[in-house]
Each structure stands twice: as C-alpha cells, then as structure tokens.
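We emphasize that the prediction below concerns an isolated chain of 117 residues; any contacts that depend on oligomerization or on bound cofactors are therefore not represented. The input was used exactly as deposited, without trimming of termini.
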Amino acid sequence: MLMRSKLIVFTGGPGSGKTSVITALSHLGYACLPEAGRRIIRQQVKQVGRALPWQDKQAFRDLMFSEDVRHFEAQRHSEDFIFCDRGVIDALGYSMLESIETPEYMTDVTRSHDITL
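Result of the prediction step, given as a token string:
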C-alpha cells in the first residue's frame, strides 16, 4: 500500500495570510507546523548568529531547509492532515528569489521525498 503524506503546505509571499490561516486552523484543532524561518530568525538574533536573511542568506536558507526536511520526515506517515506554514519547497523558492545557487542535494531530497506542488 502506498502511503502518501497528508502534509498541506501553505506557501506564498510575505503578508499573504499564510500564518493567519495556519493560526485559525490550529484554533479549530488541526495539527499545524509553524514557519521555520521565523523561529530561526529569533534563535539567530538571540545567539547573535549570522544565519539571517539580512546577513547570510545562504546559511539562513540552509537552516530553513534542514528544519523543514526534519518536520516533513517526522510527519510524513501521519494519518492526519497536518497544515504547514511554509515547507521544504520554500527553500528552493527562496534560493531563486535571492539568486542563491541551489545545491543538487536539495533538489534530490525534494524529489526523493515526492514533494510536489
């Protein structure tokens, strides 16, 4: 039997309502995963780190990708729908937006996890 993930990823530009929808779904009792980028920014600022979108875009992207892959792998066989505020695919979009070369391993991981739009 083929197991398909029931992760639903909300993606889009800043201020487009992703987090508002995720928050509403969470209040309705649905399982939701927060956006990795926001947590990483808070952590990096607290630690005086450089993996920030205004300092080291590539390091920021790499941390987001790693965290989103961990979330995906931890939840991919869940029987319940899980709503995600951004996801693995967003790191690839961020790379394109910021003209950062995307390492082959990122596209390979995306393909191997059957992550599609």
